[in-house]
Amino acid sequence: MITVIGTGTGAPLSVRDGEALAAATLVVGARRHLASADVPAAARELTLGPLAPALDVIEKERTQGGARVVVLASGDPGFFGIVRALAERFGADALDVRPGAPSVAVAFARIGLPWDDAVVVSAHGRDLRTAVNVCRAHPKTAVLTGPGSGPAELGAELAYRATERTLVVATALGDPEHERIERMTPAEAAAREWDAVSVVLCLDERRALSPAGRTVAGPRLSPSRWALDEGEFEHRDSMITKFEVRALALARLGPRTGDLVWDIGAGSGSVAVECARFGAAVVAVEKTPDGVERIRANAAAHGVDVRAVHGAAPTVLSHLADPDAVFIGGGGAELPAIVAACARRARRTVVVALAALDRVPSVRSALGAAGFASDGVLLHSSRLAPLPGDVTRLAAANPVFLLWGDRPADSVNEGAIQ
Known about the structure:
28% of the residues lie in helices and 25% in strands. By secondary structure, the protein is α/β, with parallel strands linked by helices.
């Protein structure tokens, strides 16, 4: 058996764990774990660096008669930890896992908040953009940090894109001499150098304590319905993407936790709000000041975060982070240039809604020039409408073209959170 002991978040080793360590022939762990453990003099020590060579050493040790391998890890080693790699290499039956307190649980305990409604995302050895998007979209996020993905880098990304967030940086959790819990703005975190950070909590402190009565841990559940009725949004003169169009647009956009979605020419922000309800981070670009205020009002009414940007595409797009998916509404003379600019930046999908048949070829051409496989439909729906005498007629809505382009699968990193 390989004994995996979670340590380093404050609780001392149990008698049983101490016995396993005392009998070890090989002890594996990070430098700080080995330094703080009572490793027997007869045991070999292996400081963790690259994982593959360490697994090779463990495998070689297990071939020796009487070998006893102990792996020391932080907190709960089955939570974004080494247990996955060990189980894949040696099988779950070969492991005796003894978890300690997860660093996320300890960090939230230090600030007196529950964490059953927190979204936990690892940036250790992963693309930081997913963690950034989760922080932007959710009011309570815990980020497990790593080299190049610590408080400074996270703060720099959030400093002007999520200024209302507070970062709580937990350093050296469980170390009685060096543990620190510091609360600061993203800009303050970006301006400092950091070492030995355990976890960063990103909070919208206005909503950090959600109502009681949760049943499922993690972020709030996906919405029970979407393609909401136009009456559920504030809009001007029916200038809103109709729910039939919105339903198919959402299906093609595929918004999800960890994504960033642009809504260009957002109008009322109905598409932006619906994407945010699915857990995506969303930027809504709108050129009219009253439209920007309307987007903010609709986002607040539905309890989601949408960053409303006042400006005209494509000029204003240069200041935004690259999106996973883009929705473009409207059909002005600038549409082909806007589509081309969005297609150059989108990682996965661009969806365009327009009424003018004449602009369909130029939109498809712009998508194709960017390497997207394009397709589309003409949506022509008729809604039930009452007539005098308790009878019903069909009321035709204006037809709308919905076009989309998908980046080839081999160039898309599928799965926002892995």
